[in-house]
UniProtKB/TrEMBL annotation:
Protein known as: Protozoan cyanobacterial globin family protein, putative
InterPro entries: AhpC/TSA (IPR000866), Peroxiredoxin (IPR050217), Thioredoxin-like_sf (IPR036249)
GO molecular function per UniProt: thioredoxin peroxidase activity
Species assigned in the record: Ichthyophthirius multifiliis
Domain of life: Eukaryota
The keyword Oxidoreductase is annotated on this UniProt entry: yes
Enzyme Commission no: 1.11.1.15
A GO BP entry: cell redox homeostasis
Amino acid sequence: MNYCQKSIDDNGLGELNFPLLSDFDKYISTCYGVIIEDGSSFRSTFIIDQNLILRHMSINDISICVNPIEICRLVEIFQQNDNDNYANLPIISGCPYQNNAKSYPEIDTFSKYQKNQKCSKKKLLIKKIKNFQITKQSRHQQQQQQQLKHQEKINKKFLIKQLNTI
């Protein structure tokens, strides 16, 4: 994660005041469906708010670089919208980073094929994310059930001891 030590001016993330997740065992990449057959992952960004709600996901080919300024812009917009209760939704013409945007009109990036592919992938990812959340919840429920069973065993042993002393 060389980009974590670099400043924003040097195409890095600069000093972070929020958690950055690492996925050495590839568990999260697998759950979010971004793992590639060779064991690497697509360049992916997931913005999850404090309520564990997925607010943004971006999955790109390995050859596409992630733009940290764009990620920061998205986080700022989500935070602003949360604070304003969506009263002041940003408009494209008012985007503070608009001057940095490049336009490529000769590339038809929204062809029907690409739209269908993106929709299918997003639906699949959303389904995987929901399954991941359900799995996470069921694990928590299993832990609670195990704790209850353990407590019941302790209570049972205690009652048997009391019964034996009578």
